[in-house]
Protein: Diketogulonate reductase-like aldo/keto reductase
Organism: Aureimonas pseudogalii
Amino acid sequence: MRNLRLADGTSLPVLGQGTWMMGDAPRRRDEEIAALRAGIERGMTLLDTAEIYGDGASETLVGEAVAGRRDEVFLVSKVAPSNASRQGTIAACEASLRRLGVERLDLYLLHWRGRHPLAETLRGFDDLLAAGKIARWGVSNFDVDDMEELVAIEGGERCAVNQILYHPGERGVEFDLLPWLEGKGVAAMAYSPVGQGGTLLRDPALAAVGRRHGVSPAQVALAFAVRRANVFAIPKAGTTAHVIENAAAADLVLTPQDLAEIDAAFPPPARKRPLSML
Ligand code: NDP
């Protein structure tokens, strides 16, 4: 699996695993755990969860999937904006750690901006860093103006990652946010990179590119997301077949012809667009 380096030198796989909507249905539990473990075995060792996913059910599932192999994985979770006061951030993180059954998160994100001042949340992150409960922090769903505000706060430049919606049908971030993040050494983590398994995967242009390489539209979408040096992606797959397919996408290199065809079907942005989020 190809790697990407964070600004602090940490090397991470370009493809990780999302877990939104996992852990909700008892009858799917065994299959979901098997899928996550299959992904880890194929190098997708970064696992993304959040306290709000299934009200903690996703974190509990991830904890079960990584039990006994904590050192092989890079765990990401997120504080909900409503909890993101200084003390609330600490309490939320401690609850996430309990559900995951681990001592420390590798990356802790503010899920999106809410009513608590960013400076408050950052103090919470600082306290968690000092206590060894998180190794680094970042944000999610931050547009350029949010990032500017963040880095103007003391310590704000230590933001490691901005997790954002990015796939061929959502390219607005290419206009300004992705270049901004590249310039500041903040990695971009693409969420919903296969368009949540919806119409994107039935798109004729992605299918045509895929046929040329003998791969699926989902694999084309993933290769598209991680083609830039600063972007990694976290597809969610609750089935081992999808996980195996996704992991293989890390080896797919899109040609200029492929990219031209994707551009024709999904034109890159010609002007600023407000950041889309789910
Ligand atoms: P994805 O784009 O990852 O799509 C997931 C869906 O696509 C599932 O239904 C899955 O099916 C299907 N799928 C996965 N791989 C394939 C494949 N190879 N072929 C066909 N279908 C496939 O959407 P998500 O919204 O889940 O985004 C990924 C992750 O990003 C989330 O799980 C979450 O961790 C994070 N996220 C973060 C957000 C934020 O605000 N920070 C917002 C949204 C997501 P199946 O499960 O049946 O295998």
